[in-house]
Amino acid sequence: MAGLNAAPPALKAARARIDEIDARLIALLVERFGVVEGVVDIKRAAGIPALLQDRIDEVLERVESLGRAEGLPEGVATALWRVLIAETIEYENRHL
């Protein structure tokens, strides 16, 4: 198996682009969790639990529909958001 440095130039360029996209995704996740911090404050004040199954179902349906409309392979958005939602609920539970 060829090492990372032995990759063809086109592959190196594609990897660099993926790295740039990953950096933007991280920035968006930081922004998202900034909003989640406000949600925690609202939920704490109102006595609302972190896990709200109706909201989870709504979000999963919405992101899967958005992904499908943009040509993302079926199930990818749902799989990724399940992890994101689980991490968000865990974060909220630690801070409620």
How would you sum up this structure, described in words?
- Residues 5-96 form the Chorismate mutase domain.
- It comes from Xanthobacter agilis.
- One of its GO terms (molecular function) is isochorismate pyruvate lyase activity.
- This is chorismate mutase.
- Pfam families: CM_2 (PF01817).
- The chain has 96 residues and is mostly helical.
- The chain has one domain (8-95): Chorismate Mutase Domain, subunit A.
- 78% of the residues lie in helices and 0% in strands.
- It has helices at residues 9-46, 53-69, 76-95.
- α2 (53-69) packs antiparallel against α3.
- The longest helix is centred in the first third of the chain and has 38 residues, at 9-46.
- The protein is elongated, with a radius of gyration of 18 Å.
- The model has no long low-confidence stretch (mean pLDDT 96).
